[in-house]
Amino acid sequence: MYNFEFSKPGTIDEAVAALGAEEAQALGGGQTLLPTMKQRLAAPEVLVSLTGIDQMKGICLSDAGEVCIGGATTHATVAAEAAAHYPALAALAGRIGDPAVRNRGTIGGSLANNDPSACYPAAALGSGATIITNTREIAADDYFQGMFATALDEGEIITEVRFPVPEAANYQKFVQPASRFALVGVFVAKYADGVRVAVTGASSDGVFHWTEAEEALNGSFTKDAIDALSPPSGDMIADLHGSAEYRAHLVKVMTGRAVAAAS
């Protein structure tokens, strides 16, 4: 590790000011950034920790019935405290990484990093969530823009994420055993105005909607509704863990399991 300055502001305004420094980088739980720095793949001169900002922590319900989660809330807290309001989201959080990761990693950090195999992007996209920053509100459909790419501007901070609660939902994750990331993960959520299916871990473009499955499930919310479908394998990741065709197959299997469990 190399030398760097460390800042731990107590408010969002202080954090935004600190991030205005040259080569400053926001730090959530550090589960991705710190290993990246150790490998010399990132070299910020200033780390601005968001873990001291109490207004960015915790879970509540909005007047509209949305589950509102502060950007600095840990996975472990989401797993424990969201269960009464959004069980599928809590279950997803409870299977991220291991206990050490869950007690340090944050939802805001995960969504800001947008790892193509992370779990929260599937939950946010599958739920039609709204990402709240220090300057604006971004719909999940507009937020994810490819592998490690998001709609966030330089110095913009995720302060809160709002999840509409569905009628039924489930997340199925085929775990890569070494990293605990999703080799393929599928989040299915049924709302009054339609079904949403979000896939993570499979595509080189990151999290995506499986629109054909959504259309089929809108007609019949059963596992049988997707039997005739075949996810395209052309843009799927192919690596030592599985071919593109294998990942496409897993997308269908995990979707079916999620629908069956949600039903």
Describe the structure.
The chain folds into 3 domains: 5-49, Uridine Diphospho-n-acetylenolpyruvylglucosamine Reductase, domain 2 (2-Layer Sandwich), CATH 3.30.43; 59-163, 2-Layer Sandwich (Uridine Diphospho-n-acetylenolpyruvylglucosamine Reductase, domain 3); 168-262, 2-Layer Sandwich (Enolase-like, domain 1), CATH 3.30.390. The protein has 10 helices and 12 strands. The chain has helices at 12-18, 33-38, 75-81, 87-93, 99-102, 107-113, 120-127, 140-143, 211-219, 244-262; strands spanning 5-7, 24-27, 46-49, 59-61, 67-70, 130-133, 137-139, 158-163, 168-175, 182-191, 194-200, 208-209. The chain has a 5-stranded antiparallel β-sheet. The radius of gyration is 18 Å and the shape is globular. The mean pLDDT is 95.
Task: Briefly characterize the structure.
The chain has 263 residues and is of the alpha+beta class.
The level of helicity is 25-40%
Low-pLDDT segments: none
The number of distinct helices, counting runs of at least 4 residues, comes to 10
* CATH class value of the largest domain: Alpha Beta
- Provide the β-strand percentage band: 15-25%
Question: H/E series, N to C?
Answer: EHEHEEEHHHHHEEHEEEEEHH
What is the architecture of the largest domain at the second tier of CATH? 2-Layer Sandwich
Number of strands: 12
What's the alpha carbon Rg, rounded to whole Å? 18 Å
Shape: globular
Sketch the major β-sheet.
5 strands, antiparallel
Strand order of the largest sheet: 4-5-8-6-7
